[in-house]
Structure formats: C-alpha cells, structure tokens
User: What shape does this take?
Amino acid sequence: MNLEFKHLTQVSLDDIIELNNHPQVLRLMPLGSPNFDREVWKQWAIQKESQWVQHGYGPWAFVIDSKFAGWGGLQFEDGDADLALVLHPDYWGTGKIIYDEIVRRAFDEMHLETITILLPPSRTRIKGIFRLGFKPDGEVEYDGVRFLRFRLCASG
Assistant: This one.
C-alpha cells in the first residue's frame, strides 16, 4: 500500500464532495450535512488550508495507491491539535495505518505535546482509543453538539 499525505487542494474536488455527502460517513459526523457542494467546499477548503498558515498544522487529503481515500489530520480546536479522520467506507480498514502516521508526524516532526480527539456521546464503541493511550479529558460543545474529548500525550 502506498500512502500519501497531500493538501486538500491537491485532490479532486468531486472526490471530497462525494465523501462529505456519503450517507455512511455522515452517520459518523454529527456536524456534517448532505449539502456539501462546490460553494460549501470553497469555504471549507479555505478554512482548512488556513490552519497550516496560522498553526503550522492542518488537515491532509489521504491518497492510497493513487486514489483519494479520505481526509483528516490535525485541526485547531480551542487551543488543541484535534485529530480528525474521515475515510471513505472503501478505506475503513486503513484507519490505523493513517492514524499511526498522523501521530508520528504530530509528536516527532511537529513536536506537539498533546493531541485530542472529539467523539459524540453516541459513539459507544471506544475501547480502541483507550488502547491507543487516550484518556478522557472533559466535554466540549460545537454548534450546539456535545462531544467527549480525549487526550493523548507525547510523553505517554
């Protein structure tokens, strides 16, 4: 498997639109909506790409064997580098490999002290994040939606 991390603007706009409107993906994204079109993409891409300039990190597009697999990475959320991973269902089995590379870059290259993940309370199958070393770290709310926050420290 050949995994590449690219800027969101380096992959097909249609692929991102299709992913962000995919019904199986939307079930896992409480802030997502099925109206992700070219106009929404334009604002979304500007906001996501600006994080690289403002914070030195941001989301990537994931390309596996020359095909768009999804997007994610680190996003600035209230002072934290928050890990997001949005994969097309055809690539759900690759999440751990992509996750490992994101975490390696976060701690080894970007020298971040911690990263977080946010999950809606409806996500009850979360034992895996504890095995990865994440610890509960409170709750936050975005756009009226409650999330549980978990934190992973570079020092273990």
